[in-house]
Amino acid sequence: MKMAKAWISFLLLILAVTVCIGCSHVDKTDVEGVITNELNLLKNLDSDTVHKYVAYEELFPDVKGKAELSNEVEEVFSLFFKDFDYKILEIDVGQDKMSATARLKLSTLDTKALAKDYDTAHLEDAILSAASGSDENPDSLESRYLILNELLKNRQYDTVETDCSMELKNTGTDTEEWEIVRTYDLENNLVGGLMTYLSDSDLLTPEETLTVYLNTLKTMDLNQMSNYLGIESLLNTSDEAKSSIAAALVEQVHNNFDFKISGSDIQSYKATVNTELTTFDSSTILETYQNELTEYLNSPDAVIDGSQKRYEHSLELLLKNIEENTATVTSPVSFYLINDGVSWKLTDESQSLSSGIFGNLVSTPVAEDMDGYEDGSEEEYSEDDSYEEDDSSYEE
Fold first, then answer.
1. Rounded to whole angstroms, how far apart are CA atoms 78 and 114?
2. Three-state SS for 162?
């Protein structure tokens, strides 16, 4: 009798354990089914599922207001998730059957590389927009997503694997017992950490930031360079002859401007980046110009030509010397940047860049009034006086 009771108790225990194991297995299967269903929709580029986990505004939370977004913006997420994949590693259902945790391995794009490319392109757009005086807002949500769209369409990014935890809760409803709990960490993990990288104010270092500024400057046309550097007296003019001189100077910049970063010093939110700037040799241009102008002004032709022709000829001489120049000069220049909590930004860029690039030719050396030469006398234009190079701009 006692033996029979013992066997019954043992069988009941086995049954209870079996039922518990069975229930736990059913719960894990249900949880796995919910995860698989949701993430497969993400893999299959279901737009509703994409926006369920990644809202447009959450990639760029600093952008104020909402805007109508184009098809190119919609395309960003399709391009981003086209190589998305996942693997469920482990599922743990809580004893109360009301919560569960899943551990997954996600395969996403290398979003750090994507974010750095985005920051570079966004800064280039901001610089050129300021230089062009454009009314377009480079910080609008639309503009930012168009940059991402362009990058994802035209560049190839590696895929990386990351571990991810996912929380689920039991809703207790008849229609869907388990649902995934949306959190910032989950959304960030699903986009490979892109939200974290895009909000990192140090993603581009001061040296990388300055490199973007200087490389963008190389691509500017006459009007953009004039606006950006603020060289009103020389580059921004309606005079046809002076415009030709300004265009020739910009061409010299395009042909000769280069730089090498020699080091940097970062102190909290301030940074100094030291460079070696190479540009056209304005001193050589001016010296040759002054010699040729002096020779002309001391000739009988200068007296015969009269004031207006002397002025026009002096402009022609300057233009010729700029166009024919092949001499370059390399000088040390220090640039200063600050981190405003969003990114590193160049300060006092106009003064540093204009003097570093144009040297003695930040203003025109041609005298407007040539009447003083009618008697054959020469009005001096001493380099040691009017066009002395400001070395302080290179030693800050």
1. 15
2. strand
